[in-house]
Design goal:
- The chain has 411 residues and is mostly helical.
- It has a single domain, classed as Na+/H+ antiporter like domain (Na+/H+ antiporter like fold, Up-down Bundle), CATH 1.20.1530.
- 69% of the residues lie in helices and 3% in strands.
- A two-stranded antiparallel ribbon has the order 1-2.
- β1 and β2 form a beta hairpin.
- α5 packs antiparallel against α6.
- The radius of gyration is 22 Å and the shape is globular.
Length: 411
Amino acid sequence: MNGNIKAFLKKDSSVGVLLMGATLLAMIFANTPLHTLYDFLLETPFEVRLGRHLHIAKPLLLWINDGLMAVFFLLIGLEVKREVLVGQLSSRSQIILPGIAALGGMVVPALVYVLINLGDSTALNGWAIPAATDIAFALGILALLGDRVPSSLKIFLLALAIMDDLGAIVIIALFYSGDLSVTMLVLSSLCLMTLVVLNRLKVESLAPYLWVGTFLWIFVLKSGVHATLAGVALAFAIPLHKKDKPEESPLEDLEHSLAPWVSFLILPVFAFANAGISLSGMGISDLLHPVPLGIMLGLIVGKLVGVYGFSIAAIKMGFAKLPEGAANQHLLGVAALCGVGFTMSLFVGGLAFEHTGGDAVAYLSTHRLGILTGSLLAGLAGYFILSMPVRKATVSEVEKVVDKEPPTARL
């Protein structure tokens, strides 16, 4: 495992612990007399005005979800671009198993949720909530197991989670945009064209990209498309290498600059702002409501079946191989860990219900309850499966089993 991957995994394990602390603090604020301070803080309006026509006024909660999370998605975009060009997703052999696993981990949980919420058109807006995986939490739990799991499994989970994030970005772009403003879309397109020109002209300084990216965020925010997508678009325009100094990377420089702020400030702040759920008056019956039940079963059962089932099918059909030194039980444990949705699930849930109006308001607390409960149970299940003694089936052993099957068994 190279130094960059080791540093990434070490960072994310510590971030997982920090996110747990932020979540616990939010729950304390929401369920004690401090809830008035908590609500006041998140509902405090902040306003930015540039001239007569450009005016942005939002409560603090939306500045966090639309603004700070755009920086988070900028970092995700940088990581995806780097991994696709020179990293863990740069070849077919590296990408196929986590790619198939990520597909199963998005499709099956969504189907579970939809089946449970059929007949409620408002509730169906949340179909993508259990399709997300929280990379920091999942890797944090995996790190607690130390050498009991092979390092190849950690790389597999990292690649899977990155592809899962990419899928979430596509879902947000296609299904969670509001009423569109043609004027702002045109201005956004001009910004995108400018970023492409900067890239084609081999502009290596980050400053022009960041200035254009700032205006792109403003225009996308006003356009009706979710503003976090501006961060992804900006990331894809940042050059990977300098023309005359290929050993230097503007993309990696920006990634390394953003990573501590995102990991140790933005994500904990987001968790604190979105995880505070008042449990007053809630009981088991609230967990059995179709929305939280669909989310819980999607995260716990859907992720397990989707990730593990699709992965094993790909291996049995000869399309992919188990990670080096891993056994089926390891794969099962990682599939369970993928049910830790938390940050990304909370984000998608906010998009699904916060601006829908009507009956969706009643789902704002219950969907968060489903996310927290489902993520907790999935994390415990994954830890339990991976901590059990296992006879490690090597790659060669798996290949022998596959090779003994008649060709028709693989079709």
